[in-house]
Amino acid sequence: MTDTATPWWRDAVVYQVYLRSFADSDGDGTGDLRGVIDHLDHLTDLGVDALWLNPFYVSGEADAGYDVIDHRAVDPALGTLDDVDELLRQAHARGLRVVGDIVANHTSAHHPWFAAARRGGPGHPARARYHVAPGRDGGPPSDWQSLFGGPAWEPFGDGDWYLHLFDVEQPDLDWSHPDVVADVERTVRFWLDRGFDGLRFDAAGALAKAPGYPPIPAGERQPGDDHPFSDRPEVHRHHRRFAALIAERPGRFGVAETWGPAWVGEPYLRPDELQQAFAMDLVFTPLDAAALGEAVRDYLAAAARHGRRPAWPHGNHDVTRAATRWGPDGALAVLLLLLALPGATYLYAGDELALPEVEIADADLRDPTWRRSGGTERGRDGARVPLPWTHTAAGQHGFSPAGTSAPSWLPQPPGWGAHSVAAQRADPRSALSAVRSALAARAALRDAPNPVWLPAPEGVLAFRRGDVVCVLNTGAGPLALNTWGSDVLASSRTLDGGGRLAAPGTAWVRHGTGSVP
Ligand code: NOJ
After folding, report:
1. Sign of CA dihedral 150, 156, 160, 163
2. Pairing mode, if any, of strands 468-473 and 505-511?
3. Domain 112-163, CATH homologous superfamily name and number
């Protein structure tokens, strides 16, 4: 690729394959790499550019693969290294790029480094690879709380405590230790050399902790704040290094898993850092044209200041399903809004089917959040229920091979087959059909200029990119589109008899009927 060519990842649609819930090829109730290979046609039919695979490494399975025991080996329950190579080969043969996931902030408590740290005792050099500190007054070294609930410190039982911002099974690595830096660099190179086209960097903002683990300031975070473990300036040294490793291989990219408003993500988009950072507040923005317009403009402006474009998440495995957050029509309306903007869109597996969040019985919950919060936070399992491929129930609606008796790792609710790929493929009014049509129509926006915001009535957001106008209607009633254009390129829902777009809905129209504002 030359410097002048548009990099493939800049406006890519990246489909997030949540591996454990995508497709189970061997009937053990958990999705696996072969299952992904078997269903690559679904991704090409849909028309996405790339897939992102959540961690498939050897894991303690305390946090669905984000507690890694061996960062460069495949969990036998999910497949083999040969399966990874085959997946890369078959995806590439279909023109799909593949994005991996690097978990650099912590390891599993069963990682050999942590086993050595546990055994070693106070002062042992193995403890220096983690955040380990002596207790204070018989309690933890500081008052930090885990993001999954409960204290963020766990005693070793010998006077020392270790930090875990996530589960107790996920001790935080100390990034000032050279072994930590060297090992993650080896991991990054390992997967890039195998052929991954991009890498997501998990918990990107957590890699540095303030010395002495000082108290967390009360109240909302503010620009310029000094949070003791989130988005500290020191993390950027590591991100620059990741970016340099990626730059060794042309055409690859990295995306930082950032959380928060545009000002939090902006420093991660400086020209010598990773190419993308998630515009995560988008998923928490209400279905309201003014609120969405403001969030979108903030992220676009922040990225543009560094010559970048945002990475727009529509949903993921950590948040409530889009169809429940915004309603089924709202989820599609927001998706078409994001797809019309400059930048990459991340579509979470199952959101093309408008799958709802599932109420899971207490006894079946697997997310560590449930246990750590003392049963007050149900956690993220409701967004992780295995996908329904077939209308019929056999093999958990085609998630597992027919005849499989093993239950899926999270139970599917009654009626799940009605949402299935097979059921929706046959229905031109389905969510799947709307997403597929929008992805095909998106070609009209390739290389389109930046948005020009257009005057619009209350509850409506409208912008033009070249000769395409995108209109989001979150207002009270149906909206006539002929103000902006007549030729409808895509819409999130069927227009009414008068050619009007109901709310919530998004349509892309070809500009040029003469009555454009
Ligand atoms: C972010 C991941 O998306 C989430 O699933 C995980 O629990 C945490 N990072 C910790 O790795």
Report:
1. negative
2. antiparallel
3. Oligo-1,6-glucosidase; Domain 2 (3.90.400.10)
Write out pLDDT tens, residues 221-277: 999 899 999 999 999 999 999 999 999 999 999 999 999 999 999 999 999 999 999
Which helix (H) or strand (E) segment is 84 a member of? helix 81-93
Separation of alpha carbons 364 and 430, rounded Å: 30
167 CA distance to ligand 1 middle (Å): 10
Q: Please write the tens of the pLDDT for every residue from 167-217.
A: 999 999 999 999 999 999 999 999 999 999 999 999 999 999 999 999 999
Residue 161 phi/psi, 5-degree rounding, is -125, 155
329 a catalytic residue: no
DSSP-assigned letters across all residues of 112-172: HHHHHHHHH-TT-GGGGGB-EEE-BTTB-SS--B-TTSSBSEEE-SSSEEEE-SS-TTSPB
- Cβ atoms of 432 and 439 within 8 Å: the answer is no
Q: Is the pLDDT of residue 517 over 50?
A: no
The pLDDT tens digits for 36-64 are: 999 999 999 999 999 999 999 999 999 99
| Best residue for ligand 1 mutational test, from 66, 102, 201, 367 (most atoms within 8 Å of Cβ) | 66
Write down the CATH superfamily of domain 8-107+177-211+222-434.
Answer: Glycosidases (3.20.20.80)
CA of 66 to the centre of ligand 1 (A): 6
User: What's the 269 CA to ligand 1 centre distance in angstroms?
Assistant: 21
d(CA 36, CA 390): 16
pLDDT at 516 over 50: no
Spans of all domains in the chain: 8-107+177-211+222-434, 112-163, 446-510
3-state secondary structure of 28: coil
Please tell me which residue in 49, 167, 169, 202 is annotated as part of the active site: 202
Tell me if 103 CB under 6 Å of ligand 1.
yes
Q: Is any atom of ligand 1 closer than 6 Å to the C-beta of 278?
A: no
Check if 166 has its Cβ closer than 6 Å to any atom of ligand 1. yes
Expressed in angstroms and rounded, the spacing between residue 224 Cα and the centre of ligand 1 is 25
Answer yes or no: is the C-beta of 203 below 6 A from any ligand 1 atom: yes
Q: What percent of the chain has pLDDT over 70?
A: 98
Give Cβ neighbours of residue 193 (< 8 Å, ≥ 6 apart): none
CB of 202 sitting under 6 A from ligand 1: yes
**What's the residue count for the chain?**
517
Does 446-510 match 8-107+177-211+222-434 at the fold level?
A: no
Has domain 446-510 been given CATH number 1.10.1060? no
Which residues make beta-bridge pairs with 83?
none
Catalytic residue list contains 367: no
